[in-house]
Input
Amino acid sequence: MEATSTSLKRLRFGKLKVVRRRLLQRYEHQPFISCLAGFYSCRWKRYQRRRTEPGKCCCKMRECVFFPLLVGAFCFSLVFLYMWGEAKNDYNNFDWYNYGNLGFWFLWSLVLLIVAAILFMYITLLLVLAMCLLSEGQQLYLHWSHKIGTFLVLGFSITALFILSVLWGDQWKTVRLSFQITAPYLHIGAITIMVLLSWPVALHAIRADKKVVQVIIVGPYLAILLFLFLIPLGMYSPCIREMGTLGPKPALIGHRGAPMLAPENTEMSFQKTIEHGGHGLETDVTISYDGVPFLMHDSTLRRTTNIKEVYPNDTAQNAALFSWDTLEELNAGTWFLKDKPFSCMGSLSRADQNQAMNQSIYKLSNFLRLADSQNKLVIFDLYRPPEKHPYRNSWINRTLEVILSESGIRPHLVLWLENDMRSFVQSVAPGFQQTTGSKAPVEDLLMDNIVKLNLAYTEMSSEDIRKYAEANITTNLYVVNEPWLFSLAWCSGAHSVTTNAVHTLKNLSQPLFLMTPQQYNIMWILTDLTSVLLIALIFALHWWRERSFSCCAHDGGPMLESGTYNKFRTELSDMPAVVA
Output
């Protein structure tokens, strides 16, 4: 009798120990999971969370519907951030466009980049938290505040992409060009993400109790993985080339001089280009009301002069309707120090600041004399004066008169771009290098004595550049500011580029991302093989652990609630029954 009582006490004591252990396991402190669930669901307490039962869905129906929206917000925000990041080459054009509509200068491009980066980091954090929770076998529940944030990110990204596509559709050409540089590295990044995703995919696939569910989970994952493995077969980049096949570095032509270092289209700006080794100078030519050609890009004087202070009632008037005496009075440099037109501008020395503050509008004749004295090529856009201008119909004749008679520049230094009256220009100035701004059949170009193409960088094509070069027609691309884009132009065979950043591009000794086909193949194969090995190990680990815990469950051993593969739940209501 005493032995039976002792055995019963031991049995009850043993059960109490089991219950105590299970309760401690259920309510023990789990700081990692608590942080994940707290930030994702605002559920910081252990009892607020639910584990995913084996073979069950990882979240409730509402969460299943919302999770694709979270993934969609991530994808759209990633696309917009990548697109806008690669558009950095043209930020000045974007800000200039907004200036024309808003009437004041501001670096809207930089603000948009910062907003895009913040929204992307926010939505990425939510997605990473979700993946970690899935990897820990927790049910997903996104807090309502994060759901609102997800809708805001999704709406902002789609709206921004739509507006930019309508107003600035050429940027998609820039994105396509960027893939020729970034694709090998984007491929590595995508494979890395797939390796990380293999952990939750393997967990839920192996724990699924139906083959159909396993196929639904693993099938799309393997399809995407196979697609990524095969992408390099269709990848092209002119920067992946054999040793010794790279052409010479493109010559650098200063776009309006060096507008990141000095006020554009001023003497100081062109002097800075010359100081940094530029091979040529690019500008824009307008003719004053009394027939003096001068340098000005905008149709008005509002952005690059102090006309608002000197003649406040004439800020909207066309620049060509002012006399040269009036134009000569204006300051063309103080705006540069005030507005800081480029986000990547360096700080100017005190001497440069003083020099910039004293710049004035530059005459074409003085510009040509400077280029001739330094043996620099010149290329310019020639703007026809507006209606009722005295030189409306003789603008080309007046410009030729200044070039040939007043400036004394050697004709071979002039790249003549204007298409109107080209045959007349060739007859009076046969030494000019005839240049055109559009592609055409080689036969037509040779018939017009064209020796250089001046093309937007979005029209870059290594095949076309090579085809024209075979006919002794060189190619200049504009406006190329970013090192990656300059590297692509170099690898594509461009002979020169027009740039705002002569001072930075001059330092490139070889193209960025240049590699041989053998180097790329090794990188590609090693990436794929390493990822296959890691993914296989992750799936094998999950299968082994699931099999081990299943064996423990059949043997009647207790399962650890804190473990990833726990298959039971202890309720507080179990306590009285065991104690009794």
Residues 517-554 form the longest helix (38 residues). Confidence is low (pLDDT under 50) at residues 556-580. The CA atoms of residues 114 and 212 lie 44 Å apart.
